[in-house]
Amino acid sequence: MSKREFYLSNEPLITNLSNNHKDKINIFGVPFDATSTYRIGSRFAPNAIREAFQNIEIYSKRLEKDLENVNIKDLGNLAKVGDINEMNKMVEEITREIITDGKIPAILGGDHSLTNGSVRAINNCTLVVFDAHLDCRDEFEGLKLSHATFLRRLYEDGCISNLIHIGTRAATKDEWDFVNKDDITIIDMEKIYDLNTGLKRFKDTLSSSNDIYVSIDLDVMDPAFAPAVGNPEANGMSSREILEFIYCLDDFKLTGFDIVELIPTYDNGSTSALAAKLLSELICIADKR
Q: Which terminus in the chain has less CB density within 10 A, N or C?
């Protein structure tokens, strides 16, 4: 081993292969925010989440699991590109390769448009989206594909077998009309006011699901809990509420997940800490698969 290999590290990567087994969770970042429509800067989020992750406790008392014993490999960040189609192509191909290798992708965004690529790599999954916005516009600012339209494209292209949208509170009338379909479940903030009712609806909807992909847009949170997001919306979820929903996934097969729309420039540390906590708990759940 050279002195360079011995003394230098590739921080903030969060690879952990200490127990000498093959990696099971593959993390990669997508530093892309070209379709952001208000605040920009989510391209810097992957490393901010990694840094926060390295500074939180990674034993989950609720799940009784220690990430010190979980094999995690951080693949680094996607090459920076400005074209959404090129970014989506790369995300789709990497995600498919990870899944084909029998591993679970954990993706750090970046703006929410990356989910259009990752979900296309999975055949007919149940897509669970935590988001203040429906992201079901037909177009926005002249773009048919962006962080405000990607979910409509996925639905219209038949890429998902079941859609569950949680924390919803901001959309156009056209979007609300669009999601009034039998195979779309909306658990909006009004249903989350009574947390037990919202959780029961979530569990009941999940009961027939097989492969589950989770996408967390951090603007699902109330700005009091996560101020550093691209499009903050008042009257959102609390940290407790989103974690209770995450823990509902413990008995199901988690195929992959992403965490998106963190803007480090606006952060006081609370948003990246929450993102790191969500990353930690989702890895715990994914590793049980």
A: N
